[in-house]
Design a protein that fits this description.
alpha/beta, about 160 residues, five-stranded mixed beta sheet, about 40% helix, two-stranded antiparallel sheet, 7 helices
């Protein structure tokens, strides 16, 4: 299965999340959205990312941008980890994290092939326009964390250009 690229319509996904069942197109339609992946729960890099994104919730809200993550951990593990992070850092993780235990979504996102080629986990971030088309993709080899400030910059530019 080929992975999705910039300008593609992001596929509709149904998955269990830390906030219940989610259908991506219903959740994201009409808004700029960020869909990010991390290899698993309890990773120090993923912790840094989630806390950074959560601390910028008001900034994402001001842009009308929704945020959703994906982990290849099971739903129970992901919920427990999110609860621990919330308690440890004194803030809520306000966005859903979907579970992809079977790797179905990772395959769509092109993570499986990249992980095998590099022999290390890869994290991706997709920025979707209100029409659910991919406007930007960022890829990182674990343990490089993504930056909420950079994501805000990109979404702000896309939105002001009406792209």
């Amino acid at each position: 299965m080929p992975c999705v690229r910039v300008t593609d319509l992001f596929p509709d996904l149904w998955a269990e999340s830390t906030q219940g069942s989610v259908e991506l197109h219903d959740w994201a339609q009409g808004s700029y959205s960020i869909f990010f992946t991390h290899p698993s729960s309890y990773s120090p890099t993923a912790e840094v990312e989630l806390v950074d994104l959560a601390r910028h919730k008001d900034d994402f809200d001001a842009l009308g941008c929704k945020v959703m993550g994906m982990s290849q951990s099971d739903p129970l593990t992901e919920r427990m980890w999110i609860q621990e992070l919330s308690e440890k850092h004194g803030l809520a993780i306000p966005f859903p994290i979907i579970s992809d235990e079977d790797g179905r979504i990772a395959a769509i996102c092109g993570l499986r092939e990249q992980n095998e080629a590099l022999d290390r986990p890869v994290a991706k971030t997709f920025i979707l326009g209100p029409d659910l088309r991919i406007r930007a993709v960022q890829e990182y080899i674990h343990p490089v964390p993504r930056s909420a400030a950079e994501l805000l910059r990109i979404v702000g530019l896309l939105k002001s250009a009406r792209i």
